[in-house]
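Q: Hi! First time doing this. I have a protein sequence and I read that you can turn it into a structure. Is that right? Here it is:
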Amino acid sequence: MTACCDGCNSLGCWLDETTGYLWENPPSSEGRNWYDARSYCDTLSVAGLGPGEWGLPSIGELRTLIRGCPECEDGGSCGVDDSCLSVSSCFSSAAC
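A: Yes, that's right. Below is the predicted 3D structure, encoded as structure tokens:
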């Protein structure tokens, strides 16, 4: 992976030093369905990483971006995670 000494902001990405995940920054503002998003990631070239080196984040990886809401942060009480994606089985409006 490309070194990101400046936080990668000038390279089109951001390194989350807490998790080590590298995120596109700024993210694309275009809305996409899952299939189009996969295609976008498969062809993305940013920060020295080329096609095939980027991918869609899992629910757990996305939850690492949340700060200040313990219920929704990774490991919080919101039941929607990588092992339970069902809104009817896992979603709680009180926690999510």
